[in-house]
Specification:
The chain is built from 13 helices and twelve strands. A hairpin with a 5-residue loop joins β10 and β11. It is of the alpha/beta class and 358 residues long. Strands 1-2-3-4-7-8-9-12 form an eight-stranded parallel barrel. It has a four-stranded antiparallel sheet with strand order 5-6-11-10. It has a single domain, classed as Divalent-metal-dependent TIM barrel enzymes (TIM Barrel), CATH 3.20.20.150. α4 packs parallel to α8. The structure holds D-mannonic acid (CS2) and manganese (II) ion (MN). The site of manganese (II) ion (MN) has 6 residues, from α10.
């Protein structure tokens, strides 16, 4: 288990690399050029600059999250080849600075979706919340609420410029069924995976969050069967997964430890976090501790351990603690994620110790 931490970059994250250095066990930084919108060229100088900042503090640059996929690729428009060429150019450039895994997603229009960013938990902390009944047929309402709640912080997948054209985007996806979206993903993978094999970068698709279709848009990475289908469609170790327990865990029917046991050799990046799912389908993000939510995090770590997992791991989101919501990006405060790192490493180390004393 190779522990990492998502960092939004100098001047774009109140948490510095020097802070992160003090969290025990963190070896790598999960990074990106966060000002780039999907389809834009990534210049080598910019890539090199961030990679140098990261390595100068002793961290690895091995994981990039995300290189976002342009909507034209997801929709399957004729312009998709141009955007796939740009994607390939980025993959090649990233391979020159030690990148080994690229996390991305194939969700139409929205990346993760929530209805509240600062829902108070019984202990007075607050966290991202999803209220099923609040998802109406009017995505505009939800978008406005989320963007307003985030204040000055930019959030990946929530680019205001792109979402300003919501009606056009929805119209463009009108004919994209689940089947069509899957075909478009396959087309994309068939073009990029040979390059990934050549430059030794593994692609790791992030599951849909939440793990069901919303606003009538198809979602294709949300369960054991949909994941199996995607992995089999392009059967290369370079076509792999970001296994996010927070996203897949929104559907209690997903047996996460069983999925890890089945897919471990294709999981290149593990997002580990807990969610508490209510009977009516609402869910809230909670601490990493298993008993605080619906995901048995210790069992999740055990499933990785059993399979000798050597891939990259990060605590995904955290609650906002001790008033930090005023100066952190929603879900990406310092404290709860740092507690998460310690919980995950605590479980891992105890499993390792038990193995040694056997
Ligand atoms: C992340 C996702 O913050 C998060 O929820 O796990 O936004 C993730 O970065 C993207 O889906 C990957 O493309
Ligand atoms: Mn995730």
């Amino acid at each position: 288990m190779n522990m990492t931490w998502r960092w939004y970059g100098e001047g774009n994250d109140n948490i510095t690399l020097d802070h992160i250095r003090q969290i025990p066990g963190v070896m790598g930084i999960v990074w990106s050029l966060h000002d780039k919108v999907a389809g834009e060229v990534w210049e080598m100088e910019r890539i090199q600059e961030v990679a140098d900042q990261i390595t100068s503090k002793g961290f690895s640059t091995a994981v990039v999250e995300s290189v976002n996929v342009h909507d034209d690729i997801k929709i399957g428009l004729p312009t998709r080849d141009k955007y796939i060429d740009i994607y390939i150019d980025t993959i090649r450039k990233l391979s020159k600075v030690g990148v080994k895994v690229i996390c991305y997603n194939f969700m139409p229009v929205f990346d993760w979706t929530r209805t509240e960013l600062y829902k108070e938990l019984p202990d007075g902390s607050n966290a991202l919340f999803y209220e099923k009944a609040a998802i109406t047929n009017h995505p505009r309402e939800m978008v406005d609420r989320i963007l307003k709640g985030a204040g000055d912080f930019t959030m990946p997948g929530w680019e205001p410029e792109r979402l300003a054209k919501l009606d056009e985007l929805f119209a463009a996806y009108a004919d994209v069924t689940e089947e069509k979206l899957f075909e478009n993903l396959k087309y994309f993978l068939e073009r990029i995976i040979p390059v990934c094999e050549e430059v030794d970068i593994k692609m790791a698709i992030h599951p849909d969050d939440p793990a069901w279709p919303i606003f009538g848009l198809p979602r294709i990475i949300r369960s054991r069967d949909t994941i199996r289908r995607m992995l089999d469609a392009v059967d290369s170790p370079y076509n792999g997964l970001t296994f996010c327990t927070g996203s897949l865990g929104t559907n209690p029917e997903n047996d996460l430890p069983a999925m890890i046991r089945e897919f471990h050799d294709r999981i290149h990046f593990a997002h580990i976090r807990n969610v508490k799912v209510f009977d009516n389908g609402d869910f809230i993000e909670v601490s990493h501790r298993g008993r605080d939510g619906s995901v048995d995090i210790a069992e999740v770590v055990k499933a990785y351990h059993e399979n000798g997992f050597t891939g990259y791991v990060r605590p995904d989101h955290g609650r906002h603690l001790w008033g930090e919501e005023k100066n952190c990006r929603p879900g990406y405060g310092l404290y709860d994620r740092a507690l998460g790192v310690m919980y995950l490493l605590g479980v891992w180390d105890s499993l390792e110790n038990a193995k040694e004393t056997k």
